Amino acid sequence: MASNFFGAPTSKPAPKHVVDPALQPWVEKYRPKTIDDVSAQEHTIAVLQKTLTSTNLPHMLFYGPPGTGKTSTILALSRQLFGPDNFRNRVLELNASDERGISIVREKIKNFARQTPRAQAIASDGKTYPCPPYKIIILDEADSMTQDAQGALRRIMETYARITRFCLVCNYVTRIIEPLASRCSKFRFTPLDPTSTSARLSHIAQAEGIPVDPSVISTLISTSSGDLRRSITYLQSASRLSSSTNPPTAITANDIQEIAGVVPDTVVADFARTLGVESIGDAMDVDGGSQNPKGFEGVKKKVKELMREGYSGTQILMQLHDLVISHPTVNARQKSQCALTFAEADKALCDGADEELWILEVGLQVHKALSS
């Protein structure tokens, strides 16, 4: 142990904490390092690319569905502006886990915003960064801030605009008060298209050495509904599940549906056939499905089977809705009657009604609509 000037022992500085990449969640491991790596947001990236050359960044408001790259984009942009050395003292990120009442705005945010940024330091990685003379405050999920907190933030944004830029990240832009939204340049993030999601998932699977069939990629895309973060998490969970067996098994589409909590297509198709929906394609072919008893007893028996399997009533309702509404042989009148039933059931389930009773009600109403 080393000693100081007076001979007293001094402890060595603690080693820098380094996370083993093998233990990282893939969402963090493959988070974009630069804004060029962000998938499928071409318009936003094109605009932000210009800020890297001019370094003149406005206050920004990123909004759109979850998992579309909002937080990743501003973090990547910040790293490209300030570099690894200045990132910590130039960027303040507050997430939903932090309290965002008016006291946080008046204390933590205001104290950080009023500090004049330090002079540019030489980057340790040998690269040159623009390092403009301002800091960035990232308020993730800003739509969960209280109205008072948003009102207090408005004045801070004006007062310290010369040395601090704000980036508000939210899912619902309508929950941001108008005086705050009008001070920001708005950037809309759209759900990822299947091509971009497929390319990113294939890249991750290849990097991790996991053989993945196109059907698995297709199932990941359909179950995540344009949320890339969710699909990457499902892929990692499926990979760990498949590697836990001896010998390791291949990932299948059914594995993805089980992990995602989605009712298997064959189960939904069998239920739909009991209600009188005609089978089309291989996805709806279930052995013995044509022998399902019809009428009240048949529907009641099938609903009881679904509930005993532990499937979510809301998930069954959602998938049955998609199947019936997009079915080519169901006419418009029947679809409208079914849609009203689905809407009524959805409201009841949201209010805490009994799942089995309402799925039975939906089944009987759909059966009645399709029989008329």
TrEMBL record:
It comes from Athelia psychrophila. It is found in: Nucleus. Keywords: ATP-binding, DNA replication, DNA-binding, Hydrolase, Nucleotide-binding, Nucleus. The keyword Nucleotide-binding applies. It holds the Pfam family RCF1-5-like_lid. One of its GO terms (molecular function) is ATP hydrolysis activity. It comes from the Eukaryota. Belongs to the activator 1 small subunits family. Its main location: nucleus. Transmembrane segments: none annotated. InterPro entries: AAA+_ATPase (IPR003593), ATPase_AAA_core (IPR003959), DNA_pol3_clamp-load_cplx_C (IPR008921), DNA_Rep/Repair_Clamp_Loader (IPR050238), P-loop_NTPase (IPR027417), Rep_factorC_C (IPR013748), RFC_lid (IPR047854). One of its GO terms (cellular component) is DNA replication factor C complex. This is Replication factor C subunit 2. Residues 56-195 form the AAA+ ATPase domain. One of its GO terms (biological process) is DNA strand elongation involved in DNA replication.
